[in-house]
Amino acid sequence: MEGSAITGAAEVVHSLEKLEAPCIFGIPGIHNLDIYDYLIDSKLRHITSRNESGAGFMALGAGRVTGKAGIALVITGPGLTNTMTPMAEAYHDCIPMLVISSQIPSTLIGGHSRFLHELENSTGMTASISKAAWRVEQAEKIESTIIAAYELAHSGRPGPVHVEIPLDVLQAQLIGDKSGSHGDITRLGEGSAPSAQYVSARKTPAQNEKIIHSAAEKIGRSQRLALICGGGSIKSAGEVQKLQELTGAVIITTAAGKGVISEDNPLSLGTRLHFSGTAQLLESMDLVVAVGSQLSATDLWDSQLDLGRKLMLINLEEGILQRFPHSEGSIQADAAGVLRGINNRLEQLNQQVVKRPSMAAEVRAVKKHSQMELNVVTGIPKGELSRIQHMLEELRAALPSEGVCVTDMTTPAYVALSEWRVEKPGKFLHPVGFGALGYALPAGIGIKADHPEVPVVVIAGDGGFQFTLQELAVATEQHQGLPIIIWNNRGYGEIRKTEELRHPGQRIAVDLAPPNFELLSAAYGADYRSFSSSDLGKAFRYAIEQAFEQNRPTIVEIVESGNVEAEIFKGAETE
Length: 575
Ligand SMILES: Cc1ncc(C[n+]2csc(CCOP(=O)(O)OP(=O)(O)O)c2C)c(N)n1
Fold this sequence. Notes:
alpha/beta; seven-stranded parallel β-sheet; globular; six-stranded parallel β-sheet
């Protein structure tokens, strides 16, 4: 838009340029077209999703891998409501994200004007699933608000931040002073837990040091030590590794913390918090330090973990500390600074730190036992389980070490959580907390959009894939060599299993007639390969290797042969 005066919309684009995001994910509409007008001449790359949920999941995938907030640009009303699910996933999983939406003209907001796309309390709606939801009321405040929102998305407990800009503000010309504060904060979940020792800027450095020293001394004295590392520990992976080395602790991660330490480390139990053997091992410790972990139901599954006073938490969030009232010596703070302080103190204490006999043999035994428990823990019949394990092994062999595996809420993912070995964080993604189906395909596309050179493989079920399959068009359009594994068991398999347990032989709403994936691939310009789950040999591995080399996505349909009536099912047969 050459020659135009600086408007609010131009200011949005300038602000986004300053953030240096590799991509913006979004969909234009009349209500945000002012912004798109200025994207025409911008160096910003825009990726157009086929539904705003796709834009949100793409931003989520990109943000999860890089740790830098992905950006979604949507219209108010239906564009924003479509973005709610990925925002909630980002909020639950603590992934930074910036969502920018338009809004109807300021004077009409909340007035029942029935203006197109009116949402009466849009920031109220997003406030419950974001760190903050801000409305910009003056064009002059756009830049400071966007920059502040972006920073907030990364600070403390990362998460999504929503900025909405009414049409009149987008169209207004900037005349006043740009300096000054951004809009009002609708919600900020920060505070202090009464039960925790609170390391903060409000305390003197000496007070903070005392708290950290006493934690280090407790760690140094413990005879049997374990660390549970969640997503909040990833930013401090180096300090986690150092603490593990200094203490010889056993280390377990949640799905969000997967890879914070190499799972090849003989003292790493990987992501196995949901196994009974792990719970027993943890209960045999005299101290378990949970770093940046929510220790939520989705981390533990049905496993009972009663650590009482043996548990020490290091977490930013008051609510999490309060869930464990018996924990002792917990610290409410960001993991990075606390771990650094603990490690420094442990190095100073050196001679006083207990020399622990290696627990590697115990870790090996728990891993071995977890193999035997896997079908009980996941509820997957042994036959299907061994086919999934075989599939994962072949896939793992085909994926280069720098590659990323993105999984949906599907049966193979529940196995992969513990069985997919990673050496680094950000290499295995799963919508762990909120559990939104339809995550994997757009999240994988988002990663490839940001980092075309990184090999990415997507694993989804036939059910979950259909939640966001339209985004396949984006993968094709962007020439992404993306293998998409569809585990086709003709239905909502996980729910079907639960129904079978509740009322054997009686099923409702879980058996699906899948589309003909071959025709579907052709329609979207994707390649297509098909395998039976009981025949996943070298040809399967080769198909995946080839798929990385293509300049378009490849659907790799795996027809689960165990619990479907027909070996190869084609949608046309339902007619
Ligand atoms: C948005 C959303 N709706 C519903 C669910 C509930 N749910 C969890 S797993 C599942 C079945 C998924 O089926 P599919 O993707 O085919 O994988 P499978 O379990 O068959 O391996 C459903 C419906 C969910 N997690 N997310």
